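stage 2 :: seqdesign
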């Protein structure tokens, strides 16, 4: 420090008077208090408590899923994306995808061995409509980025997708549609939604339980650093860690088709009772491997 700018001067300048023989003792108490604040664990969240989508309540006059599909039936590309984003942001989503649910697993190795890892995810893929009549909507990466920024949420990694499938109470068998020229058509969204709803009805699944296997996930991946204009897709599991779709960045960021789903996750993870920002956890060598196959 330069002349005249000792600790006493700094604290006095900020409204803390440090005078006489007690100056050093006061400084020590202040430093100790700051250290205790920094070292104290962040508050814990209960296992069944998770964040909710930061969206307005569903408007009374909002379109049902069937009505929305009828409205966008002839739309493709950017117009369809805008329509889907508009409905989501105005709160036209069913209640069972408004609350995130916890994924929990015990860390088996590394410096956090034995600690409980917990993060929060949507129980199903994002949808538009009412509780009784809704449709899961695929979105391209450009739209997902806008939405995740507004909601302060993120996309999962491939490892998280594997964890979600492993923990899902309802695991559905992937049901691809026959190959067609226009695989990204709205007609295919309608057809596949009917198939998924029939699968869920057969197993008697209750809305809000964790369900997986029925869609490919849009994921975050380091591969996009090399292909920033692409979208990363992964999933459609036949069994744990056995997806039909390996990690792929073949499609451009403005691509979406019926097989894709948007499952957003919270931007906070819990490691042994300590809440850590997801981005920070993925950047730490000691934590990244428990959340991603791609490292830091």
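stage 2 :: out
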């Amino acid at each position: 420090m330069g002349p005249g700018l000792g600790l006493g001067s700094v604290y006095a300048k900020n409204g803390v008077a440090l005078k006489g023989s007690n100056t050093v003792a006061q400084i020590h108490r202040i430093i100790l208090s700051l250290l205790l604040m920094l070292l104290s664990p962040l508050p814990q969240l209960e296992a069944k408590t998770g964040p909710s989508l930061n969206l307005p309540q569903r408007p009374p006059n909002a379109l049902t899923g069937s009505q929305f599909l009828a409205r966008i039936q002839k739309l493709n590309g950017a117009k369809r994306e805008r329509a889907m984003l508009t409905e989501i942001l105005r709160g036209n989503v069913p209640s069972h995808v408004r609350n995130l649910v916890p994924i929990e697993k015990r860390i088996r190795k590394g410096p956090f061995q034995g600690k409980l890892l917990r993060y929060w995810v949507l129980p199903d893929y994002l949808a538009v409509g009412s509780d009784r009549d809704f449709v899961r909507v695929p979105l391209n990466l450009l739209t997902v980025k806008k939405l995740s920024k507004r909601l302060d949420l993120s996309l999962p990694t491939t490892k998280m997708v594997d964890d979600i499938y492993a923990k899902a109470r309802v695991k559905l068998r992937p049901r691809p549609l026959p190959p067609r020229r226009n695989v990204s058509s709205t007609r295919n969204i309608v057809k596949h939604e009917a198939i998924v709803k029939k699968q869920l009805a057969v197993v008697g699944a209750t809305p809000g339980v964790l369900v997986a296997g029925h869609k490919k996930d849009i994921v975050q991946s380091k591969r996009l650093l090399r292909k920033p204009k692409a979208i990363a897709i992964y999933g459609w599991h036949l069994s744990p860690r056995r997806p039909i779709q390996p990690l792929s960045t073949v499609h451009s960021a403005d691509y979406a088709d019926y097989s894709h789903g948007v499952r957003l996750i919270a931007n906070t993870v819990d490691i042994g009772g300590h809440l850590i920002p997801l981005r920070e956890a993925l950047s730490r060598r000691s934590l990244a491997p428990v959340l991603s196959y791609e490292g830091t």
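stage 3 :: structure notes
- Residues 173 and 213 are 6 Å apart (CA to CA).
- The longest helix spans residues 186-203.
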